[in-house]
Amino acid sequence: MSRTIRRLLSVTAWVAFLLVACSPVVTLITRPPEATPTVQVDFGLVTPVPPPTRAILPSPTPPMRLNPEIARGVEVQAWFSADLWFLEQLAADFNATNPWEIKLSLVSYPNLNRLAQAVSDSLTGDSHPDLVLALPEQLTGWRDALLDLTPYAAHREWGVAREEILPVFWEQSHRAGTQIGLPVIRSGRYLFYNVTWARELGFSAAPRTWDEFRAQACAANAFWKSDSDPTNDGFGGLALETFSNWQTPYGWIRAAGGEVIAKEAYHFADEKNAAALEQLVELRTTGCAWLPTTLTNFENLATRRALFITGSLADLPAQRAAFSAAGSADEWTLIAFPGQSPTVPVYGLDAALFSSDERRELAAWLFLRWLLTPEAQVRLARASDLFPVNQAAFDLLRGDFSANPQKGAAVALLKDAIGYPGAPGWDLASRVFADGFFNLFLAFPNGSVQSTLQQMDAVVNDLLK
Q1: How far apart are CA 215 and CA 213, in angstroms?
Q2: Backbone angles phi, psi at 444, to 5 degrees
Q3: Do you find a cis peptide bond into 33, omega within 30 degrees of 0?
Q4: Of the candidates 12, 171, 320, 370, which lies 20 to 30 Å from 261 by C-alpha distance?
């Protein structure tokens, strides 16, 4: 069989898997968060923004005329995923307190995948939502039906100040001069790091560069190899993930100076991308990284079978529970993906408005604007255990972050936060990226970094052509 035919069959099989098999369920919140005590102290990680005066950024279009009175008594509908269970109470409070008697009803779907399918189906029918809470890459697929929120946000009285929202969050739904959505809530991807064990191994600071990371990971593995039991020689270092997600490989690649897009097209087989993954494969080869058989890695960090694991903000309660179950008093924290540019990928939900009539569009906007007030943002952040999006809400949450050192560390790492590609097709390209990275280590030692990246390119090109 020729090389060309073998390659074609491989690509075809991968495409078929993606299109026929069940898509990975996309979630931000994996469990109801544990209660976090509030202690008001000066945290000092996020610079407070004084209310209420704000500068209005210049708009490329004439100011929009907004008269909330035309939205009086209007009924609008918002669609969301069921893991945002706390949105029900927020919507009820908006309905009870907004002065225009706008009535917002919610339609819930089991997860973001089902939500996205329902929205796509609705756009070919007679009824669609007025507002949706979804991932920025999902909004891209509906952009022709969405309102440009730029003139709404720029309105002097009824707008949203762009400078109050962290730029890395705001920009994730900015497409070619059009603001198709506004950020509502955010998470991030990190390394979880056992500080106490690292100190015992002789390291006084968390790694920021790859060489520092490798030294600590290999020292942890050497610790396990130092006893007389050969069955534990694979422990220590980095415990690799046992499920597929795109945020982790994206963190490693971007920290190494790589990127997954070039000239507005997806391109995985890049030299820097290959170098980043080769470093991880070498770590696996030397025993400084290992692939567990457990479904999660929380116990491995708590019992020192791993010095590093990867996780998100939503995983903090589970990791705390694992340390408690292990009876461990070890100190642990969150750090950025180490490399030449330490990196924290951030991602989350944006709100978008669908074109309808002026009254419904304005009513939906007034709810979105209310959802972005500092008070509503604080409630969203506390209920979800994730990040708010505006500076004023971060300031109000200082006490919470002080009482939760891992969340506080995550806030401090916002200086390393990066977004991800806004090009069309990221919803599909990210699945290929995630599965290719995951299977590289499942196939170890038989997988090839270069051939895996080339296959990713071929599959994505075939899916998006």
Answers
A1: 5
A2: -55, 135
A3: no
A4: 12
Q: What pTM value is reported for the model?
A: 0.87
User: In whole numbers, what is the pLDDT of the chain averaged over residues?
Assistant: 89
The DSSP symbol for 64 reads P
- Number of Cβ atoms within 10 Å of the Cβ of 132: 29
Q: Which two tokens stand for residue 149?
A: 């929120």
Candidates 176, 165, 188, 190; CA nearest to 351 is 165
The strand pair at 182-194 and 178-179 is best described as: unpaired
- Kindly report the CATH class assigned to 68-188+347-418: alpha beta
The type of residue at 189 is R
Provide CATH 3.40.190.10 ranges for the chain: 68-188+347-418, 189-345+421-464
CATH topology of domain 189-345+421-464: D-Maltodextrin-Binding Protein; domain 2 (3.40.190)
Structural contact between residues 411 and 401, judged by C-beta atoms closer than 8 angstroms: yes
Residues in the chain, overall count: 465
Say whether pLDDT at 82 is over 70.
Answer: yes
| Tokens representing residue 158 in the block | 């009824």
| pLDDT score of 230 more than 50 | yes
Whole-number Å distance between alpha carbons of 41 and 432? 45
- Show the tokens assigned to 385: 């255990």
